[in-house]
Amino acid sequence: MEKISVLLVDDHPTFLQLAASYLAKQEGLVVVGTIDKGAAALKQTGELKPDLVLVDLTLPDVSGLKLLSELRAAFPSLAIIALTMHSEISYREAALAAGADRFITKSNMITRLLPAIRELQAAAAPLSAGWKQRLIDE
């Protein structure tokens, strides 16, 4: 299985550390970076070229929704998962409309994140341009 490189974007240092540690222990995943500001995420995505970016919707310097749309515009085949504490349907709809492939609440991270990553990986396998297929986390 090819390793999936992951970039985490979240303003909470403890969550970044815990999420990076959790993901690093998972087979087939490698965390290539953690970023606590949205403005740096676009640049780091271009430099690190991850397969997947996990984006919090609440960032101190830029709206997570704005970052999602900027990432989608700059990197159309990039897999993007909104990983946030916000569980309201309005956040889910806005994140998916802005360009997220999946929407997962932090409270469901342990049970839903890995299956979502594996589904995106499987969906990308037959696509020559990368991880483009949209899947919605119900």
What can you tell me about this protein's structure?
There is one protein chain. By secondary structure, this protein is an alpha/beta fold. The protein has one domain (4-124): Response regulator (Rossmann fold). The protein has helices at residues 13-24, 38-48, 64-74, 89-98, 109-124; strands spanning 4-9, 29-35, 52-55, 79-84, 102-105. A 5-stranded parallel sheet has the order 2-1-3-4-5, sandwiched between helices. β4 (79-84), α4 (89-98) and β5 form a beta-alpha-beta unit. α2 (38-48) packs parallel to α3 and α3 (64-74) runs parallel beside α4. The model is unreliable at 126-138 (pLDDT under 50).
Helix-strand layout with pairing:
Elements: E1 4-9, H1 13-24, E2 29-35, H2 38-48, E3 52-55, H3 64-74, E4 79-84, H4 89-98, E5 102-105, H5 109-124
Parallel strand pairs: 1-2, 1-3, 3-4, 4-5
